[in-house]
Amino acid sequence: MNLVTQERRKERLDRGIKVRTEGIYAVSSWQEVSYLVLPRLILIVGLLLLPFLMPSLYWNRVISIVGIYALLALGFDFLAHYVGLVSLGGSLFIGVGGYIAAILNKSFGLSPLFTIPIATLSGAIICTLLLLPALPLRGVYFAIVTLMYPLVLFRIIEALNILGGTDGILGVASFPNTWVEQYLILSIIILALFGLRRLVNEDIGLVFRGVKDNDQAVRASGLSITLYKAIAVFITSALGCLGGAYFVHIYMVAGISLFALDYSVIPIAATVIGGGGTLVGPLLGCFILVPISELLRAFGTLRIVFYSVILLAFIMFRSEGIMVYAQRKYHQFERWVKV
Amino acid sequence: MDILIYGIINSFSLALMAIGFTLVYGISRIPNFAHGALYVITGFLVWSLIHLLKLNYVVSIILALVIMGLVGAAIYRFVLIRVRGMATSEIIATYALGLAVLEFLRWGGFKGMTYTLPVFIEGSIVIGNIPVDLQRVIVIAIGIVVVTFMWLFTHFNKIGLALRGMAQDEHAAMMLGIDSDRMAVIAMAMGSMLAGIAAITLLPLGNIVVEAGYNVLILSIAVCIVGGLGSWVGAILAAFMIGFLQIITVAYIQSHFHMVVALLVIIATLILKPSGLFGRQKELEERV
């Protein structure tokens, strides 16, 4: 048998329409306009229609939870893939934001309208200060410190019996109704998503990527690496604290479960599954993972095992994630060519 | 006096926990966030070998250590080798692995008072009118043995020297014909075995609980950072520093601050001397 093995490789080319629509001035037909607008429109309309499509109150609540995780995941993706800092402690942000909102609401009687913005800002400042020592350093220090804070804060609250101890702070005010609750978080997600996308393409986004890829070049340009890292951490922790404050007002309780591992793992898993560095990917990942997680609620901590295994499998075998794959298919076509 | 004795014991426990982590990090630059999980697995492994397979204590210890070595090698060979060099993925992969193991054990019902390992020798001795049980004395002995063995191994053995070469300059080592991946497999296997040794020595002092996994991870990271990531002398010195600080905190303030000490020491180190006590060698690399 005479088997001729011919060397072939896959060639990827940009679709013509992508090239034509890249410069905004060239857009001249409905086809091209829809090529640009449709994916974004599907996302936004889809998100806004979601509360109507859900069958029951329970699943409406799940949307809000997905939103909170999505904020964390967006923050993680931004920090990991645009600034190069891997945060293993999403629950730090949730915990700090949540406790601040609960205290403001219970002790000072502020309504969610005020507690959420205040918790977001002050929580972000606190988290940034807490993480500041690890910022001037390269390498794994940031990951280590973010890993430790939630575990240690959990113990401190448990041991000293402060902030309500193991029972937590009960009776926090809730939102007026579920529609406000859902649409507020959905619009926050959309704003955060498009805001971050805009941000990383601005000048400051370029500096962020510089910090990730070649920090000495950034320093040689006379910019402080620590300052830019701090800004990035501030943005991420603001998103996380917002989620935390929101969470507290949804469940009307702030307890040490705010420092639970779920808030650290799911965002990472969502980012890896959805596609790191796309910012939309983590959102998609959350919409896949969190409902599954709700279905598996009966299994307790086995859920964390489940995410970890998925995470491990994706990072080993399909590290690009769904969204990167989808974008490639959307923008490019492939064909086999002879070498 | 009891601060001195228990401080020394605590310091040796910390050194035992941290030595595996610092070995892996120093050689392959992989922060092994699954270290705590390996520690706990060993405990359960020995327990199951004794109680389910009815093996002799000594036999099950040896068997467990061999299995741990294989597990460590397998982790590198099948998981880490795929993400090697991508810092983000390395961190996430080991973290996910550790979490999966620990939470699986927690779900599997391994909690509570029922899981204990027998002590090596019953009884206690009195040192300067303070009774110390023999297991704690053994901790010191094994600590000294392990540290001395590691020092001898990395200074007078071909593989040990290759590991050290890898740690100092990977490219130069590769040019001299040292296989980077093989060395990393060996480092990972030894790191897991060291985690196992720590577990077997320390776990008889209390119950086997899943939380220990997180504590061990935090403490060994603390020791490594304070000592300078990847530095041996530093790690041991740091173990003594943190060990005594912890005992002093427990004695004079409150026992709950045990873990807080570790965090504060890390933060203080990062602010004052980020390269750690003895991390001069990698200082330029770590510091921006």
What does this structure look like?
The complex is a heterodimer of chains A (339) and B (288). Chain A folds into two domains: 42 residues, no CATH class; 285 residues, Orthogonal Bundle (ABC transporter involved in vitamin B12 uptake, BtuC), CATH 1.10.3470. Chain A contains 14 helices and four strands. In chain A, helix 1 packs across helix 2, helix 5 packs antiparallel against helix 10 and helix 11 packs across helix 12. Chain A is mostly helical. The mean pLDDT of chain A is 84. With 288 residues, chain B is mostly helical. Chain B is globular and about 60 Å long. At the A-B interface, helix 6, helix 9, helix 11 and helix 13 of A face helix 3, helix 4, helix 9 and helix 11 of B.
Q: List unreliable stretches of 5+ residues of chain B.
A: 283-288
How many E strands of chain A? 4
Widest sheet: strand ordering of chain A: 1-4
CATH fold-type name of chain B: ABC transporter involved in vitamin B12 uptake, BtuC
**Beta strands of chain B, count:** 2
The backbone outline of chain A, from C-alpha atoms, is globular
Task: Please name the CATH topology of the largest domain in chain A.
Answer: ABC transporter involved in vitamin B12 uptake, BtuC
Strand percent estimate of chain B:
under 5%
Overall pLDDT level of chain A: 84
Radius of gyration of chain B: 19 Å
In helices, the fraction of residues of chain A equals over 70%
Key words describing this protein structure:
heterodimer; A: 339 residues; mainly alpha; ABC transporter involved in vitamin B12 uptake, BtuC; 2 domains; two-stranded antiparallel sheet; 14 helices; 71% helix; 5% strand; globular; B: 288 residues; two-stranded antiparallel ribbon; 12 helices; disordered C terminus
List the helices and strands and how they pair.
The complex is a heterodimer of chains A (339) and B (288).
Chain A: E1 8-14, H1 16-22, H2 30-53, H3 57-83, H4 90-108, H5 112-131, H6 141-160, E2 169-170, H7 178-201, H8 203-213, H9 215-220, H10 225-251, E3 253-254, H11 262-274, H12 280-295, H13 302-317, H14 322-331, E4 332-338
Helix pairs in contact in A: 1-2, 2-7, 3-7, 3-10, 3-11, 3-12, 4-5, 4-6, 4-10, 4-11, 5-10, 8-10, 11-12, 11-13
Chain B: H1 2-28, H2 35-51, H3 57-83, H4 87-107, E1 124-127, E2 130-133, H5 134-156, H6 158-168, H7 170-175, H8 180-202, H9 211-227, H10 232-252, H11 258-272, H12 283-286
Antiparallel strand pairs in B: 1-2
Helix pairs in contact in B: 1-5, 1-8, 1-9, 1-10, 2-3, 2-4, 2-8, 2-9, 3-8, 5-6, 6-8, 9-10, 9-11, 10-11
